[in-house]
Automatic annotation (TrEMBL), chains A, B:
GO molecular function, one term: L-leucine-2-oxoglutarate transaminase activity
Modified-residue entries (N6-(pyridoxal phosphate)lysine), positions: 197
UniProt lineage: Bacteria, Bacillati, Bacillota, Bacilli, Bacillales
Catalyzed reactions: L-isoleucine + 2-oxoglutarate = (S)-3-methyl-2-oxopentanoate + L-glutamate; L-valine + 2-oxoglutarate = 3-methyl-2-oxobutanoate + L-glutamate; L-leucine + 2-oxoglutarate = 4-methyl-2-oxopentanoate + L-glutamate
InterPro entries linked to this entry: Aminotrans_IV, Aminotrans_IV_CS, Aminotransferase-like, B_amino_transII, BCAT-like_C, BCAT-like_N, BCAT_family
EC number: 2.6.1.42
Required cofactor(s): pyridoxal 5'-phosphate
GO biological process: isoleucine biosynthetic process; L-leucine biosynthetic process; L-valine biosynthetic process
Protein name: Branched-chain-amino-acid aminotransferase
Keywords: Amino-acid biosynthesis, Aminotransferase, Branched-chain amino acid biosynthesis, Pyridoxal phosphate, Transferase
């Protein structure tokens, strides 16, 4: 495929940027967005960076009715010397295409998508905040736009990238959370869409999430949809447990999202020679390990928080307090290393970061 | 709740209507649409009938990312004397609220929603076609519109109703279809969103649907997501089997949509003293019944086709031809009765139809 060049339409009236301390996740958006259209027969075409603006879209658009959509989430970080860099963006672009395949959405050109992310970040690089722990959240997504009420794959799509500056996840230092095991509702099941990043998975999670928050827990720990015995993942995070000196994480089984942070954690642990195994983990095993004192640590992994230590697990009347409710050594070491690499404070032995050249490739 | 009155803004430049023979499902839309907004704190407000038009909506709107949405589908029919009537619309409005509950969307006022449907149909009643078998398809739906990237229930929604004139489903008379049992992909699972009418269920079905069409089948017969043994439903239809003189349909188990046509079929069969039971039905039972000659009839039920006889079931290499591939007696009788009632050709002993008064309640 010949590489398409990205048309750029620059905004004249730049928006006012929120102050670093006022940054709330996902509420403010930068000056520009990327848009590319798909039309059956023509393929993906007209990649453009344009001023951030509303979409004008038919009420019959399939996205409003049959949920055919996929998305991604990644971040750009400002390093101490002022550079801007991305963390493993090629992984997000690959995963977007894996999600596309499950949702019957035509694949995108991964190089073009990467280039679009880089150019858009370069164009709005003033929006990448520089206070400790802040970053620019990047949201690529694809929606089905054909105005048609039949249940069928759409013949038209829009691939869009929007960006939002975000504050520090841990304003008062990395902090353990309380998580509740969900016994009634199910997020995903083998043969379903659990391993794809598609809206329906999140829509179906809202009910359980709402109920768990009412009980004072911050997120839900999902069990498998078939036997309701095996650990899947937490809200928007994959999950790790240290049991008797060994780190265990649920194996990718078709209903779990293959997290990029998860993969980074696994690579780091292997690099450090810390025992790590991907396998099925039952809630009963965790309960028993807790009872006999071998459940030593638990943490979630995801782009938003990087690492979220789990201080307490609630399951059927049992409050399992883990590591006295404090952040464990491995959680801390992994968190410090990944964020160290992301902000350019530590060496990057895996070549995970990708520099964004300010306006380098922007053609006008 | 005090009933809100519906504001009406009439279109001046009426669109050209497609000819009866050119009607394709879900492609043409009438002159007007209904829109009502929800804002946290204010509730549902500003119910309005306005000219059919595009929505101007933020690319950060939650519907594009987390799929929080619900919809309904019902029809208006033109009777022989020119009246327009709806079929059990109160059931659709009730089910919309059941779906809302699962998707954490604030409930709508069912009376107001019914009134909105009636007024909109009255306003665009010229769009209800009159050729045999044609109708006006009505699509109420709710989408989450808050521009926010956090995974949480939205604080803003839009309830919209659009309408599309549709041609006859069976141009050459009611006709059996071939259906393939799906063994790999799963539509829904207990604890998931299967019993709600929400986009994600349909998005997840596209892949299996595409594969089955490639093999020459018109729709997929879904098995349960847990054991992959029990019959759930067909594409956009519930399903019935006549085994050894008794009609059997899968019981509502939490992962099947409670179809309104399904309920109508059940009421009719009971009315006629035809043995009917709602219970679990395994694919193995159907296979064995076919082998010993007691699988006498099979049909799907749904708003689009009313009744869709199943002439062949494909399962793991077996082609189960049912009733010699012909429409069965019960399928035919149920089809004739429901459509007879819908088009006002037969008596309506259950009070299923609701007349729409032309412009009766339209306030301008
Ligand atoms: C359901 C789910 N699981 C896991 C993750 C973690 O994935 P990643 O590490 O790629 O952010 C996310 C968030 O992206 C998610 O939405
Ligand atoms: C998944 C599913 N099952 C069953 C049905 C049949 O329901 P109804 O008879 O209310 O149209 C539909 C269509 O509405 C559907 O989408």
């Amino acid at each position: 495929m010949e590489e398409q060049s990205i048309r750029v339409e620059e905004r004249q009236d730049k928006k006012e940027k929120p102050k670093s301390e006022d940054l709330i996740f996902g509420r403010n958006f930068t000056d520009h967005m990327f848009v590319m259209d798909y039309t059956e027969g023509l393929g993906w075409h007209n990649p453009s960076i344009i001023p951030y603006q509303n979409l004008s879209i038919s009420p019959a658009s399939m996205i409003f009715h049959y949920g055919q959509s996929v998305f991604e989430g990644l971040k750009a970080f400002r390093t101490e010397n002022g550079d801007v860099q991305l963390f493993r963006p090629e992984k997000n672009v690959q995963r977007l295409n894996q999600s596309n395949d499950r949702l019957v959405i035509p694949p995108i050109d991964e190089n073009l998508a990467l280039e679009a992310i880089k150019q858009l970040v370069a164009m709005d690089s003033d929006w990448v905040p520089s206070t400790e722990g802040t970053s620019l959240y990047i949201r690529p997504f694809i929606i089905s736009t054909e105005p048609y009420l039949g249940v069928a794959p759409s013949h038209y799509y829009k691939f869009i990238i929007i960006m939002s500056p975000v504050g520090s996840y841990y304003k008062e230092g990395i902090n353990p959370v309380k998580i509740a095991v969900e016994n009634q509702y199910v997020r995903a099941v083998k043969g379903g869409t659990g391993e794809a990043k598609t809206g329906g998975n999140y829509a179906s999670s809202l009910k359980a999430q709402e109920l768990c928050e009412k009980e004072g827990y911050s997120q839900v720990l999902w069990l498998d949809g078939v036997e309701k015995k095996y650990i899947e993942e937490v809200g928007s995070m994959n999950v790790f447990f240290k049991i008797n000196g060994e780190v265990v994480t649920p194996a990718l089984n078709g209903s779990i999202l293959p997290g990029i942070t998860r993969d980074s954690v696994i690579q780091l642990l292997k690099h450090w020679d810390i025992p790590l195994v991907e396998r099925r983990v039952s809630i009963k095993e965790l309960y028993e390990a807790h009872q006999n004192g071998t459940l030593e640590e638990a943490f979630g992994s995801g782009t938003a928080a990087v690492i979220s230590p789990i201080g307490e697990l609630y399951w059927e009347g049992h409050h399992l307090v883990i590591n006295e409710g404090k952040t464990g050594d491995i959680s801390k070491k992994v968190y410090d290393t990944i964020t160290g690499i992301q902000y350019g404070k530590m060496e990057d032995p895996f070549d995970w970061t990708v520099k964004v050249e300010k306006n380098s490739k922007v053609r006008q």
